[in-house]
Amino acid sequence: MNKTRVYITAGFLTFLFFLVWLRLIDIQLLNREKYIKYIERQYYTKENIILPRGSIFDKNGDIFAISVPTINLFAIPKYLTDTQKEELAKGISEIIHISKWKILRKLKRHKNYVILAENVDKKYKDQLLKLRKDLEAWNFGIIDSSKRFYPFDSLAGTTIGFVNRKTGKGMEGLEYKLNDKLGGGIGKILLMKDAAGNPFTIEKEEISDVQYNVEISIDKNIQFMAETALKKLVELRKPKEAAVLIVDPNTGDILAAATYPNYNPNKYWRYRYHKNIIFQNAYEPGSLAKPFVFALAYKKGILKDKYYCGNGYIKIGRRIIRDHARFKYLTPEEIIIHSSNVGIIKIALELDKDEIYKNFLKFGFGKSTKTFPGEASGIIRKVYGKAQVAYMSIGQSWIASPIQIAMAYSAIANGGYLLKPRLEKAFINAETGEREEIPVKIVRKVLEDDTVKKLKEVLKLVVEEGTAKSGKSEFYTVAGKTGTAQKYDPKTKSLSKTKYYTWFAGFFPVDKPKYTIVVFANEPQKVYKWEHIGGGKVSSVVLKELIDQLMFYSKQKPDKHPASAKH
């Protein structure tokens, strides 16, 4: 044998082996990720699924929002016979109760991978797998997914918000605000493809980061009471918008936020309006502004024994501002009790205009509480003349949201402290159960103790014998103020004589307040042609019943004798 030929052959084989070895190094080490991705493109495909989110619980542990396991049904129609398509469409229709023709249409119109049904209840999975086996329709399959479910339907709908059924992310309300905590969204599922490029089996799923469950301040039972009372108001007065807000004045916890219009998050796509007017809209507060002017004057020590209220009107420059009655002489307390525009304007004109403006800012007006997504800041501007002082003091020419009103009146109730509203009470790690509490936050002290005491005395009389007396409770003491603001009419370019914002804001029981309540209506209608629309008349249908329900629910003993409410 020729040794030279042996050496050449051996060298050539060694060289080939060396090339293979280099190629293996390139594939296994240097460009491993590149080739893995190439293989995945050739043999795998990714499909979207909706990932589960953390749950939302009320303060008592009742579930307001939860992700429910579901399944999506898919098929590769070109590998199914016509008979299998007919039988499959019929079988699926009978099991999950959707149209047979809808399924059959998809099976006939598509050749490759197609979704037949989404968000199907997981309880049907075993029946569907049996159907596949019976028909030997191996190119019909099931993918696990999830959907958001709201057990109480529209209860607190505008506050809870909703999750988009296509993206799995919150779009409104707390669902939107807490996207980062609750998780969810779109996940990827890796499917292996056959030689023709069609998926036929699940390889793995990509899951989201750590999720949190959320405990909120809303009490489901109090929310139900508020919505029931609001429904009566809407049926009776047919307003454009209305709300009932209930807050714990000692913590800032929002216990109920009932709004009209409202919607069912389970069917959010059927509704055009998704706003929560308690947070996201602002309106003129009307006479709700008067106690804050009174408080400033009381603090400054400038209140007189009595004020002449002009027999029902006052002229400021060329403007005439009227009262709802022809008052003559009223004490400062009576000005609030009977809600005299003329009286409070006369008090306001004796104060420094900059101090009045800063006093309203101090109570949180003109600035968002940053509690809710898209929250309104309200608008309150500096005043430069007597007319501006007059209108500011009677709650016209500036706007505030119902949540700002609630926190300002809670400051009177709790001894003078402006609190930040609280909707989220705690975040709970879904894996470890670790709990992160959200503390009560005091923004600042806004009232002195003696001013608080005086305001409570006066606001109690507003309910007992003043403009809010039609809504007083026979069992519990209530302090509060009514408000009525004329709406601006763009057609006449003046204040309307038929369209109003009406309010009530107050707290109870007076000595140890447990609840702050705000009742609002936008353009409530008259029940009788002769009646005058006002905050007291409109809110009474809510207050009388709701106050007693709330106090009985919280097992609070009456703090006044029933006979004391009858005069």
Report what the structure shows.
- The protein is an alpha+beta fold and 567 residues long.
- Mean pLDDT is 88; it is low at 200-204.
- The strands form six sheets. Strands 2, 3, 4, 5, 8, 16 and 17 form a seven-stranded mixed sheet that branches.
- Helix 3 runs antiparallel to helix 4.
- Helices cover 36% and strands 24% of the residues.
- It has 18 helices and 21 strands.
- The relative contact order is 0.10.
- The protein has two domains: 46-216, Penicillin-binding protein 2a (Domain 2) (Alpha-Beta Complex); 220-268 and 278-565, Beta-lactamase, CATH 3.40.710.10.
- Strand 6 and strand 7 (199-206) form a beta hairpin.
Summarize this structure briefly.
This protein is 36% helix and 24% strand.
**Count of DSSP strands:** 21
Number of helices: 18
Point out poorly predicted stretches: 200-204
CATH class placement of the largest domain:
Alpha Beta
CATH homologous superfamily label of the largest domain: DD-peptidase/beta-lactamase superfamily
The biggest beta sheet is recorded as:
7 strands, mixed
Overall mean confidence score, pLDDT: 88
Structural class by sheet pairing and helices: alpha+beta
List the helices and strands and how they pair.
Elements: H1 3-30, H2 32-43, E1 44-50, E2 56-57, E3 63-75, H3 82-96, H4 100-109, E4 114-121, H5 125-135, E5 140-149, H6 157-160, H7 173-177, H8 179-182, E6 186-193, E7 199-206, E8 212-216, H9 220-237, E9 241-247, E10 254-260, H10 277-280, H11 290-300, E11 307-308, E12 313-316, E13 319-322, E14 329-330, H12 332-337, H13 341-348, H14 353-362, H15 386-393, H16 402-413, E15 417-419, E16 424-429, E17 435-437, E18 442-445, H17 449-465, E19 479-489, E20 494-508, E21 515-522, H18 535-553
Parallel strand pairs: 2-8
Antiparallel strand pairs: 1-6, 2-3, 3-4, 3-5, 6-7, 8-16, 9-10, 9-21, 11-14, 12-13, 15-18, 16-17, 19-20, 20-21
Helix pairs in contact: 3-4, 3-5, 9-18, 11-17, 13-15
